[in-house]
Amino acid sequence: MAWSAMKETRIIMQEIFNHSIFGNTVASYLSALGIFIGSMVAIHVFKKYVLGRLKKWADATHTSIDDLLVRAIGKFVVPIFYFGAFYLALHTLVLSPDFEHGLRIAAIVLITVMFVMAAISAVDFVLQSYIRKSADSTGGEKQLKGIRGLVNFAIWMIALVFLLDNLGVKISAVVAGLGIGGIAVALAAQAVLGDLFSYFVIFFDKPFEIGDFIIVGDKMGVVEYIGIKTTRIRALGGEQLVFSNTDLTNSCVHNFKKMERRRVVFKLGMIYQTPAEKLKAIPQMVKSIIEAQDDAAFDRGHFASYGDFSLDFEFVYYVTGADYNKFMDIQQAINLAIFEAFEKEGIEFAYPSQTLFVNKAD
């Protein structure tokens, strides 16, 4: 009796397993489910043990490239593994052509999107590393936004062409059309493209950065913003000056922020009635005054020339740093000290004057 019940149960179970639903037996569905669950378990083990060990190893090293690779595996490769488990399980079943075609399209789209995201992350990592090496990382971060947008757009466009090609779209005609259209756009927008390439020159060559005080021709000010098309400078008067990037790269730019020390040249004119002994003492007097100033280094001082109404001396010294206010404070202190020293010694400064000689005839 029990044997016959077991036999009957086995027959019923066999009928259930052999029952067909949408062209596949229940046993096939269970087998696919088992493959999917087994794959998910294997992926979980990989994430917990293999990827976890790799993460600990990457954290222990001083380089950041291995951290990037481990993050990329967890962020981009593992989702592909999940989809691969689902894809592998479904392929054990008999699928309709339409469903199989849709599954193939989903696989291509997923792989393309993951590849694009990985490429964007890699490029962003390279740019961030480049910015961190620069002196002004804050200004570089602001410039990086424009570069990042352009790079992301280019990567997505390349990925779109790749995706359309793999989906069976005849991309050659589209590329040819885009090529012709691109030439027309390039001819119509030469100035814009020139400013764009100049932006890349400014970003990578760094002739100036945000916060630098620069002089271009007769214009001067502090760089506030470097964009894809224009660069904006805050002038000393308070107004904003807008330059195209091409104008800046084609011009001679004086960057005072990168100046390590400032060379200062000034002249003094003495009256012709000054005694020779006092003329000889003037270079040493001025040298002592300059050397007494902090952050000022005396270079030279000479009786340079005979002027129209004065005996001209020329002095040269250096101020450490690029701070203009600091330079003016030192120059003011030197001027006051010279005035006091010359007043004490009775040395008179020359000023424009003429002497008229009159001969009286008999």
Report the end-to-end length measured between terminal Cα atoms: 170 Å
- SS-based class: alpha+beta
Q: How many domain regions?
A: 3
Based on CA atoms alone, the radius of gyration comes out at 40 Å
The total strand number stands at: 10
State the strand order across the main sheet.
6-5-4-3-7
What is the overall shape? Answer: elongated
Low-confidence runs: none
N to C succession of SSEs: HEEHHHHHHEEEEHEEHEEH
How many distinct helices? 10
Q: Strand share of the residues?
A: 15-25%
Percent of residues in helices:
55-70%
Q: Quick check: average pLDDT?
A: 78
For this entry, what is the oligomeric state of its chains? Answer: single chain
Largest sheet: 5 strands, antiparallel
Overview of this protein structure:
The chain has 362 residues and is an alpha+beta fold. It has three domains: 2-177, no CATH class; 194-255, SH3 type barrels, CATH 2.30.30.60; 261-345, Alpha-Beta Plaits (2-Layer Sandwich). It is built from ten helices and ten strands. The protein has helices at 2-18, 26-60, 65-90, 97-133, 137-166, 171-188, 190-205, 245-249, 276-291, 324-345; strands spanning 20-21, 24-25, 213-216, 219-226, 230-235, 240-244, 253-255, 261-270, 296-306, 311-320. The strands form three sheets. It has a five-stranded antiparallel beta sheet with strand order 6-5-4-3-7. A three-stranded antiparallel beta sheet has the order 8-10-9. A hairpin with a 2-residue loop joins strand 1 and strand 2. Helix 9 packs antiparallel against helix 10 (324-345). It is elongated, with a radius of gyration of 40 Å. The protein starts with a helix and ends in a 17-residue tail after the last helix. The mean pLDDT is 78.
